[in-house]
Structure formats: structure tokens, C-alpha cells
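Contributing new records

If you add data, match the layout below exactly. Sequence lines come first and carry their own label; structure lines follow with theirs. Keep one chain per record. Anything else will be rejected by the validation script.
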Amino acid sequence: MSRFKVSGKVLKQPLPGLVLCCALASAPVWSAEAAHVIPAYAGTETAISAGTATAVLAGGCFWGVQGVYEHVKGVLRAEAGYTGGSAGTAHYEMVGTEQTGHAESVKITYDPRQISYAQLLQVFFSVAHNPTELNRQGPDTGPSYRSAIFPQDAQQGQLAKDYIAQLNKARVFDAAIVTRIEPGKTFYPAEQYHQDFLVRNPDYPYIVYNDLPKIADLKRLFPAVYRADPVLVLGARPRS
């Protein structure tokens, strides 16, 4: 018997493979996160001319964050997983106890010739989640839903720090950004049933209310990087 989380609690779920990420899928009583128009990074980013690069970001339930980046041009793969804790605790039921140090996160493999790390962060702060909410996003509460950036090198870490300072100085949001920068953490892939969840379950109430608006906001606010056909971890897009 598997489990699912409801407002931070771990409950039994009798149907394997059908999970509720963090909140009951009945009529919602919370407010969906709203996108913000924010300026691009004002600093200079060292260009990467060849190969691929990786970003690891956490912004609440990984279903929505993964779904957003699967629709971003230049992203080659966006994999849901856990970052911040150990390999032994990188499992959905254990992370749900809020005792592991992990955050639900997404590992983004991208082509830096098509999209930059700074652009990925602009989408992160603008569309993917609300960076002013501490240890929560929408209906989901606890440190596994924290806003966090896991830089893969010193340059990413400095860029993230500078961009947060820029946005706070400009007072883009009504409150200060609480996103944590956590270097030196290992990403562990989530269970297969979590991968591509938004694309494979577009009628799921949690997805409809919390996450599909993020895809619409991505298309509206970032038309130059939006792509209609997502890149998927598990292969072909399911037929509708």
C-alpha cells in the first residue's frame, strides 16, 4: 500500500501509481500561486558555447515545476526528484515525514546555446512558484516544499545570489524572497510514477487548479521560450 500527503500529512493510498502529491484533490480551499512579471537578470553570465548544462531547483510540489520546464525551449530533460538529504532517505514516503532534509526538486538538463541559466531562474521566480513563501507553496507545507536553488558550481551560486539581491532591491514582490541557495547537494530521482505527472494527468484536480495555470503563464509571459510539445522523461506523450 502506497501513501500520499494531504497538507503535510502522510496518508495511506490504496491504489498504487495513483497518488496525490501533497494535497487532497477535492474542491480546493487554497489560492493558486500567481505569476509575477519580473526583470531579466541584469548581470553578465559567462556563456557556455558547447555541450549541456544542469540546474537543480525546488519550488513546491515537483509535479508543477517539472511540468513548467518540460515546456521550456532548450530544456532537454526535466526530472523530478529529491535534493538536500541522503540517498537512503530519497523516497517519497520518507521525504513526506519532513525529517530528511530533502526538498522535492527538479533536475533540468539544458542546452546553454538555446537558453541560459539566468533565463531558467527568471522562469523559476516568475512562473514556477512563489519565492516569498517559506517552507510552503499553495496547499503544501513543510521544508520539503521550500524554495531552493542547488547550484552546480560557484558561478551558478553567485548568479543566483546576485539575481535574488536584484529582485529584492527592485521590490518586485510584496515580500522578501526566501529562496535558499544550497550548494554541494546531490539530486536523487523520484519514483517513476511521479515523472511527467502533469502531462500524463492533465485532468487531475490538483494539477488543474495548481499547475496548469503555470503552463498558461509560461506561454503568456515567456512566449519566446515556450514550446507546446513537452520534453518527457518517460517517452512519448500519452494520447488524449
